[in-house]
Amino acid sequence: MYATTDTLATAPAAQGGRSRWLALYTLCAGMLMIVLDVTVVNVALPAIQDDLGFTSSSLAWVVNAYLIAFGGLLLLAGRLGDLLGRRNVFVAGLVVFTAASVLCGLAGSQEVLVIARFIQGVGGALTSAVILGMIVTLFPEPREQAKAIGVYAFVASAGGSIGLLAGGVLTQAINWHWIFFVNLPIGVLTAVVAVKVIDKDKGLGLGRGTDVPGAVLITAALMVGVYTIVKPAAELGWTAGQTVVLAGVTLVLLAGFIVREATAANPLVPLRIFRSRTLSGANLVQALSASGMFGIFFLGSLYLQRVLGYDALEIGLAFLPTTVVMGLLSVRYSEKLVMRFGPHRPLIVGLSLIVVGLALFTQAPVGGNYFVHVLPVLALLGLGGGVCFPALMGLSMSDVKPEDAGLASGLIGTMGQVGAALGLAVLATLSATRTASVADTKPALEALTDGYHLSFAIAAVIVAAAVAIAVTVMRPAKPATAATETEELACEAA
């Protein structure tokens, strides 16, 4: 089932009909602000570099500082929502993110901007980690839950392409400072409305999960892991000594965390949550699909910029069809598909469409035409994402107890973030390696295109692996037949 009655039996009483949808829109506004930030900043990086004097290598920290804090704290933030109340954590995250955004906009030095971006990542993690858990609690009825998750999935997955357009407009029309200042009115308004329209929930209390060693271990593991992916692995290579050492440290910290959680009286992350094949499979699919999709949005933007000569605003407009198609499906039709076919089949179909789109992108030539070589790809990615992501979000929460909803929400977010960072690092590295290997035998633009083609092909393989997991690990249980039920009753009687 999409959401079981048992799963939500102990959930707080749902808010009234109108206020629930206002609460959903408020949650999505907070999520949109967080999602937009990533791609908005990417578009503005050249302007930031020129203004503050970043070198090419140090400029990466404008992005990396945010990713390390965000990816490292998502899981902890989700659990804090369960313990302290999800609305409290959501609003606190908005306050931190908004204040840090103002500091970013005022930054007159490299150091201030990087520190402010790290704080932004902390606020982003607190805000986004609890949203999905709040949605499934607000909407326990399957049909409404499917529709609500469709709206959330659209914002979470398509917001990045909106950020490309917004970043281009703000940077070119005013200056890069305003990509951060624009968060001030949005963040304040969202926080005020959240307090008014979202009922305050009472958390389990710190006594139910004050696992300080576990929190330190998992946060350190995720931060070191994300740093390893975005810094030494991307810049020095996967076999470099620094990469290998830091990867080893990450694994040791993860192993220590698992041991701690298996023995702690009140674990931060109860390992029982992973007994669900649906939950575990959904997180694997999330990591793999994010690896393929996020890397392609980044490298696809580079293809449009470096090979086809698009500027920042044109790139944003080019990706708009993905947003439109994904939004139409997520908001209007995903709920109907899920209720008609269940979440499993739309997930497989949507992922398969993404694979086809990525494979098609490998045919985009040096002198590519947007309507022939790019638009069909972006339409397929939007179509696939609009079909599969709402189903995936619903499946990730379908077997979760209400008291673990924040944890599960943070977990699916963590897997998406780590998967995106890993996918981008791998695809960008392989693309650059391929380009360098043919640079002596091919013109510059052809060498670049060869590198992008390789990354698109590998992304297709990665998402195909997600399809395989969805088909095998996440296959729905067969409904019990009358004969089976009779046999079970006889066994119980015996």
TrEMBL record:
Membrane topology designation: Multi-pass membrane protein
Residues passing through the membrane, by range: 21-47, 59-77, 89-108, 114-139, 151-170, 176-198, 210-230, 236-259, 280-303, 315-334, 346-364, 370-395, 407-432, 452-473
Location (main, coarse): membrane
GO MF terms, alphabetically ordered: transmembrane transporter activity
One GO CC term, this protein: plasma membrane
InterPro entries registered for this protein in UniProt: EmrB-like, MFS, MFS_dom, MFS_trans_sf
Domain spans labelled Major facilitator superfamily (MFS) profile: 23-478
Subcellular location: Cell membrane
Pfam families in the cross-refs: MFS_1 (PF07690)
Record keywords, A-Z: Cell membrane, Membrane, Transmembrane, Transmembrane helix, Transport
NCBIfam families reported in the protein's UniProt record: efflux_EmrB
Protein name in the entry: DHA2 family efflux MFS transporter permease subunit
Taxonomic source organism: Kribbella sindirgiensis
Lineage: Bacteria, Bacillati, Actinomycetota, Actinomycetes, Propionibacteriales
